[in-house]
Amino acid sequence: MLTIPLGRLEREGRLEVRAEIPADDPSWEGTELRFLAPLSVSGRVQWVPSGEVLARLILQGLLAQKCRRCLEPVSVRVEEELDLFFAPVDESAGTDVGSVRPLPEGVGGLDLVEAVREELMLSQSLLALCKPDCKGLCPLCGINLNEDRCECSQEESDPRWDALRALNEKRE
Ligand SMILES: [Zn+2]
Ligand SMILES: [Zn+2]
Questions:
Q1: How far apart are alpha carbons 100 and 111 in whole angstroms?
Q2: Ligand closest in space to the Cα of 140
Q3: Residues of the chain under the 70 pLDDT cut
Q4: What 3-state class would DSSP assign to 102?
Q5: Residue 3's pLDDT is what?
Q6: How far is the CA of 140 from the centre of ligand 2 (A)?
Q7: In angstroms, what is the span from residue 71 Cα to ligand 1's centroid?
Q8: In the chain, where the domains are located
Q9: How confident is the model at residue 15, as a pLDDT?
Q10: pLDDT at res. 99
Q11: Which ligand does the CA of 155 lie closest to?
């Protein structure tokens, strides 16, 4: 579980975190995150005497994504280090305080899954390519240009057609 018992954390100062979020966990529902294996979360959570909580986590997993150019399935290895900082909500400071997350008051546990999910959705892992030089899909006919060629792209990119056209125009 990724719920940190805050009372125990305050007493002990720091706690080790070691958890796995299953590939079919409801946390991923409604997101673009599709996992091929459980996401491993490890690291430590630290109590700051002024009342804040600092979590340093390492995420490791395998995502099933689609190439952003040609939409073919690709698996993407996730290796992310996260520093999460939680502080009691200060009404006077407003809600927009950058990377500081609100530390819920009056509850026994701090759930880290929400923060992990948010960070993953902002990460580069979602901008996958099947290969660095993927040619993508033809914007006109939709053919996968890694596998096939199509008339539309050929005509547009081949300078010989322009030369031929110019020649025909001269003749007319
Ligand atoms: Zn691709
Ligand atoms: Zn085409």
A1: 15
A2: 2
A3: 1, 90-98, 153-162, 164-165, 170-172
A4: strand
A5: 92
A6: 5
A7: 6
A8: 3-126, 135-172
A9: 97
A10: 76
A11: 2
Q: What angle do CA 42, 44, 50 make, to 5 degrees?
A: 150
Dihedral sign of CA atoms 129, 136, 119, 115 in order: negative
Q: What is the pLDDT of residue 46?
A: 97
CB 101 within 8 A of CB 115: yes
C-alpha of residue 48 to centroid of ligand 1, in Å: 45
What's the 3-state SS for 46-85?
EEECCCEEEEEEEEEEEEEEECCCCCCEEEEEEEEEEEEE
**pTM of full prediction above 0.85:** no
Look at the chain and count its residues. Answer: 172
- For ligand 2, the distance from its centroid to the CA atom of residue 148, given in whole angstroms, is 9
Q: Looking at residue 1, what is its pLDDT?
A: 67
Question: In this structure, which amino acid lies at residue 81?
Answer: E
Which ligand lies nearest the alpha carbon of 130? 1
Q: Are strands 73-88 and 100-103 parallel, antiparallel or unpaired?
A: parallel
What is the distance in A from the centroid of ligand 1 to the CA of 126? Answer: 13
